[in-house]
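Quick one, tokens below. Sequence please?
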């Protein structure tokens, strides 16, 4: 593979800190037998671990290397005589994987497990031997990376291996770090495989491992994996992109001049910063070419500014936007709102007086380390500050680095015993490349994939109890369960008290998370009679039949006039009311705040004084809005009867999105009891609003 776009050494200014150390940077993209073995023969590998030790000491100067040498000795002796398909001694593979992780800054335990990651799978070494020699932590990680036996699982071996690794990753993210480095080295040496096997491995890498690398924030591994997959699955587009990069190499690059200008601006502003040029990798160049068509010279890389503190990031941003013309649409603040994979930076783009537009990334050095290495940069999540904490391998360990998406994945995989279901759902889950955070009514938070609905939130919060969810309030407003959620929304989920409640088949059309889809599908399979749904008629306009035939307790100052209580506002004692003469000489009585009062006055209707009789009884029409559930009509009617109120008529409209509207015309013995009646109706489970018609 050409390294113009992927190798930072293409721009000497990209890694000045390496020159200061006086240490030659090992190019991870050109690792091979010569880099690992040096001038020694194939049968002699005594100094191979030295490269790993050098890279490890660069990040951890005080690291104890004796355990690495012991691990290397066990790996070399156990793999002795085994060869890779490329013809190299097999030990070159665990060495290369370990060197990749050492360059990313992995701590000693990870590197020890990496050296041993294939011993249990491919040699006579057992997990008990690993535990006895290197401890529980290393044993747990090695076991997590070890594949399941194909003889036991057959065609399901690959999905079950990934399930095993993901479950282990939920307890220790270092398991997946080793798997990603392992796959990267295998992809680098994939050329010796048959084309069809190359394509199969590349597709799994694209669908599963690259998304995992993205979610764990290991950008250094993710970008190279993307390029390797790109070259195998899309060779024509890859060659076109390679030609674009090669052609750019012979042209004048505007980025060095832009970087110099940025250095000058920041130096004059008194901001201590390191300015680098970050070449884009192949896939990034390809995406930019698809987006913009013809590429500009500055499109082949980005300017990276490294500072010491968070506040310095915003100071740099202010200077850039003051001294250059900012491209406002390109600004993104991932410091205030980090990505779900730990990534933090400020992204912007500025235009120079010469007309060049350059993308600029601003971050602290710690942010840069995490942006490149992700969870690898977090070290040992079980360190107590003085020593590693040995964990009981039989108990689930709480990993402080476990992200929300991984917790969700571990939850739903338990409900997917079928390997094919797990494999297909896993790919669909990993295809969701953005995450949102919503707030629960009790103050907690839920992490959900972008596009998730209230249904997904219900199952994320309540598990199988969400089968009885009948509605939700989002940001205080009632909404249907199918409504999508946005980042920062507050969601309150309403559950039915009826144990027989269950999800509707159409919920599957709006569920995005595997946990919700699996739970709904399982329930519907267990209740086939409820899975059959019939289309509901569209809701007809509300037609309220109130006491239009008479004036009830209203008395008007117009002898022999017919009095009607308006159906639009259904006035009852002791409401303040107004009367107007309408066609036929009848008088219609409205509440004074009814919108119809202003209309009557505007068209010149004759006003008539109205008062209430001394009698306390009255007739009123109420509308109850509720979520559909069995026995709701009976419960509402019973609540009304308990208040001593007579039901004159009742109308129930067809449900729409599981919401039902009930309209009651009621005869109250005392108008003063109306507020208590409305409260009693609102207290019926599933009813969320009761109002006068």
């Amino acid at each position: 593979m050409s390294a113009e776009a992927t190798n930072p050494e293409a721009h000497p200014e990209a890694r000045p800190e390496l020159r200061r150390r006086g240490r030659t940077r090992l190019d991870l993209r050109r690792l091979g037998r010569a880099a690992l073995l040096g001038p020694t023969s194939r049968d002699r590998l005594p100094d191979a671990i030295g490269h790993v030790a050098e890279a490890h000491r660069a990040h951890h100067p005080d690291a104890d290397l004796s355990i690495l040498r012991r691990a290397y000795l066990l790996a070399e002796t156990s793999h002795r005589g085994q060869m890779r398909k490329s013809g190299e001694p097999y030990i070159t593979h665990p060495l290369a994987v370990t060197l990749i992780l050492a360059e990313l800054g992995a701590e000693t335990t990870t590197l020890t497990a990496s050296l041993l990651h294939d011993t249990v799978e491919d040699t006579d070494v057992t997990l008990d031997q690993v535990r006895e020699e290197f401890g529980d932590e290393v044993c747990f990680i090695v076991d997590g990376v070890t594949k399941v036996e194909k003889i036991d699982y057959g065609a399901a071996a690959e999905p079950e291996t990934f399930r095993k690794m993901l479950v282990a990753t939920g307890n220790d993210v270092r398991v997946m770090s080793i798997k990603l480095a392992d796959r990267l080295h295998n992809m680098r040496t994939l050329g010796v495989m048959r084309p069809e096997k190359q394509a199969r491995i590349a597709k799994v890498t694209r669908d599963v491992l690259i998304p995992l690398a993205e979610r764990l924030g290991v950008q250094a591994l993710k970008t190279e994996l993307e390029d390797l997959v790109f070259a195998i699955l899309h060779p024509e587009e890859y060659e076109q992109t390679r030609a674009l990069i090669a052609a750019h190499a012979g042209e004048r690059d505007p980025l060095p001049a832009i970087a110099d200008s940025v250095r000058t601006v920041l130096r004059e502003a008194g901001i201590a910063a390191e300015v680098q040029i970050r070449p884009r990798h192949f896939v990034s160049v390809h995406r930019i070419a698809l987006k913009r068509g013809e590429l500009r010279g500055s499109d082949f890389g980005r300017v990276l500014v490294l500072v010491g503190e968070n506040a310095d990031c915003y100071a740099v941003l202010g200077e850039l936007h003051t001294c250059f013309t900012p491209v406002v649409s390109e600004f993104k603040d991932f410091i205030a709102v980090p990505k779900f994979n730990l990534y933090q930076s400020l992204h912007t783009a500025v235009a120079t007086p010469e007309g060049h537009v350059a993308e600029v990334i601003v971050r602290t050095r710690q942010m840069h380390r995490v942006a490149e290495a992700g969870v690898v940069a977090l070290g040992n999540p079980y360190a107590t500050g003085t020593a590693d904490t040995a964990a009981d391998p039989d108990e689930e360990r709480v990993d402080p680095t476990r992200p929300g998406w991984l917790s969700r994945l571990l939850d739903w995989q338990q409900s997917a015993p079928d390997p094919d279901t797990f494999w297909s759902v896993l790919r669909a889950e990993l295809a969701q490349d953005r995450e949102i955070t919503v707030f629960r009514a009790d103050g907690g938070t839920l992490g959900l994939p972008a596009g998730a609905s209230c249904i997904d939130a219900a199952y994320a919060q309540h598990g199988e109890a969400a089968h009885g969810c009948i509605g939700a309030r989002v940001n205080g407003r009632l909404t249907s369960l199918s409504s999508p959620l946005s980042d920062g929304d507050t969601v309150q989920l309403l559950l039915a008290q009826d144990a027989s409640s269950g999800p509707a088949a159409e919920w599957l059309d709006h569920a995005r998370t595997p946990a919700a889809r699996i739970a709904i599908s399982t329930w519907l399979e267990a209740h086939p009679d409820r899975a059959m749904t019939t289309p509901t008629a569209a809701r007809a306009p509300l037609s309220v039949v109130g006491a239009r035939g008479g004036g009830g307790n209203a008395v008007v100052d117009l002898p022999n006039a017919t009095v009607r209580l308006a159906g639009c506002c259904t006035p009852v004692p002791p409401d303040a009311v107004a009367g107007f003469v309408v066609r036929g000489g009848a008088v219609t009585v409205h509440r004074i705040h009814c919108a119809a009062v202003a209309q009557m006055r505007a068209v010149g209707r004759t006003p008539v004084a109205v008062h209430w009789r001394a009698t306390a009884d009255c007739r009123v029409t109420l509308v109850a809005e509720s979520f559909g559930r069995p026995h709701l009509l009976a419960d509402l009617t019973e609540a009304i009867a308990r208040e001593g109120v007579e039901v004159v008529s009742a109308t129930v409209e067809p449900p729409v999105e599981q919401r039902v509207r009930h309209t009651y015309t009621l005869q109250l013995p005392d108008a003063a009891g109306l507020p208590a009646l409305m409260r009693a109706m609102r207290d019926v489970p599933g009813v969320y609003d009761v109002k006068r018609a």
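The CA atoms of residues 365 and 550 lie 80 Å apart. The longest strand covers residues 618-627.
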